Amino acid sequence: MTAANPVPDKPALEGLEAVWGDRWQQDGTFVFDRDGAVAAGRDAIYSIDTPPPTASGSLHIGHVFSYTHTDIVARFQRMRGKRVFYPMGWDDNGLPTERRVQNYYGVRCDPTLPYEPDFVPPFEGGDNKSSKAADQKPISRRNFIELCERLTVEDEKQFEALWRTLGLSVDWSQTYRTIGREALHTSQLAFLRNVARGEAYQALAPTLWDITFRTAVAQAELEDREQPSAYHRVGFHGADGPIFIETTRPELLPACVALVAHPDDERYQPLFGTTVRTPLFDVEVPVVAHHLAQPDKGTGIAMICTFGDITDVTWWRELDLPNRAIIGFDGRILPEPPAAIEGDTGREAYAQLAGKTVFSAKQAVVDLLRASGDLVGEPKPIQHPVKFFEKGDKPLEIVSTRQWYVKNGARDEQLRERLIELGRGIDWHPDFMRVRYENWVNGLTGDWLISRQRFFGVPIPVWYPLDADGNPVFDQPILPSEENLPVDPSSDPAPGFAEVQRGQAGGFIGEHDVMDTWMTSSLTPQLAGGWVDDPELFRTVAPFDLRPQGQDIIRTWLFSTLLRSQLEDGVAPWTNAAISGFIVDPDRKKMSKSKGNVVTPADILERHGSDAVRYWAASSRLGTDASFDPQNPTQIKIGRRLAIKLLNAAKFIHGFDAPASLDLAQVTSPLDRSMLQQLSVVVADATTALDGYDHARALEIAETFFWTFCDDYLELVKERAYGEPDAGQVSAVVALRVALSAFLRLFAPVLPFASEEAWSWSETGSVHVAPWPRPEEVTADWVEAHSVLTVVGRALTAIRGAKTAAKASQRTPVDSAVISGPADEIAAIESAAADLASVGRIAELRFASAEELSVTDILLTQVPSEEER
Question: Of the residues 67, 626, 700, 786, which has the maximum number of CB atoms within 10 A of its CB?
Fold first, then answer.
């Protein structure tokens, strides 16, 4: 900006987003000054590990809420003189993108199909929500990935446009994609180093499995959902009679490996060390003791099956029990019975279950138990929590699979304690969110399962040799060298092999699984900071100053990022964690796509303006849920009113010719000095609040005084400001200009467009790179009472009240008025008596002593008649 802009005749918010968004881009206002940062050193830098939004569909109002919180911090720190590193990433790999591509193009991935170079999808732009996988066109993995990349690029363009409209002061030259080449390289390099240090390993183990998406699920991706079920009282055959258990999963009877009771349960202590036989399948199983058994649940004794739930896995592992899994990857009962079912009767019973869904198998087992007499009474209906994949529609099963894991402290006490220690070294905003992190770390039950049976993701860089019979040798994985990264084992040959040896005896096979999307997202500091491709930048910005994010992904994104940083560098990746709350609907229900109550922000931004929406977001403290009613967005309307008032106040103040240079020595009126003294306290308190990441408190402080400034101070001084250019007039104009400058900078992080517009009427640079106001800028060593403005404001309110009581207009002249009050307050009012008389249109203003301030007598020049009223 080379010259100040003219003050418009009618200031308006409409169109400011486009005008100033283009200007900021043109001027490079928010570009990270890398050379200056390197020269100035780490203390002069403020770096933000910005959340990369999932590029699959559309942003919602919750994104606007939390990203505004981050932008306020970025703008504040920039005005404080920091070189702000504020990148933006796009989280575009993983299941959400795959689902969107399937729905958008009407396709599904089939890795067995060949690549079609000129493939055209069945359609574009559909939501395809009601179609089944069988109705979607199967295509090759490569064709599918190409569609994923095409759609995510288009989604990211729309996301960036909305972020620019919102006014995020992101450096758009610093962007990354979690599926881009740099992300592939970084993720695979970090994984190889995890393997080299023994932190990543593969194992054949019970795995939480989503039968719809045919993929393993990690602990962090689970959620409990209340589901209807029923307790079935079933009798096992003991030497001295039946032993009754109650189960919600009778279909797992053929997978039963033991009965378990608490070691202190006297009812079952005589049975420990003995065996019983299962109903229907006649398999001998032991009765064992374990402290996780619940004496007060059901009959106090339970069957252990492989695998009904996570507790079954714990019992199976700790009690060294056999594996008799019967559920396949498709959620159906496997065709062959476990080897332990040897009798003809048991095998015939199993044959009636083979190939059935879990639901159908349950009904079949219940019918068989009823016929055999082993079912006692009728099932008792209940509601209970069931584990689901957070993006899935069917309950999870537990199947045995070979997967890759990363150690996370679940079985390593030293690592767990180190992760707790690192968490306590971070400043949490609000602090109680740290407890959620610690609860998650202390509640981990297994290492991080990081392999996924999906298509659009970072390939796990591993091959396996095939022995002479063509069988994979999984315990001798082939790894690439770091300089050859990134690789795709499904299409690149293993080191030392030719592609023709793929799948051949003595040759190799590639790992088809991809990494859990959090394996890439957990490296956002490395991706944004150039850990692999730009080591100088990474040294300049890391560890980062801030991780902003939502509370619901503390267990996933925050924890996994801290874990990867500990494993790689032994340090925390950031010094501060700012955790936003949820957006809830008018019924206080969390907004989510699954609930169908999400509000998309584009229309809200267009209707009310970005500054108004940002005000709504800024009004909520970190960690606090905010309600949003699109039919009655009260806070947004208040924000719009504030932004318009800021423009109008600035126009009013610019209507007075100011001296060429503003000097506080020119401020001589006690009223003017009092206003600036109070403003200095506002600046100090707002700064303290923002330094403590309390943007809502900072806004409240600034806004409250701004309305006092507009409603009282501007009214009191406008006549003097309009007057002849004497010392009193100059004092008012200088005070007004000094205050306006401070207000525009105080509001700039929250109302960037209105603040920039008004700033441009007198300044040639952007308000967003102007220095943050300091208390000493707006006040001097004045001896006048700090309370003059407050007391005079109360007197003005009393005069207005007297006119209102007399049913007279505020413009009605007053012949005389008497203001009574304590001596110190009367003295304060007398110092501004001329201004008070002017705004109140009072010909004669007199004072009297009293205990409380009030207007004790007022004589209006003319009281309107009934008809005039």
Answer: 67
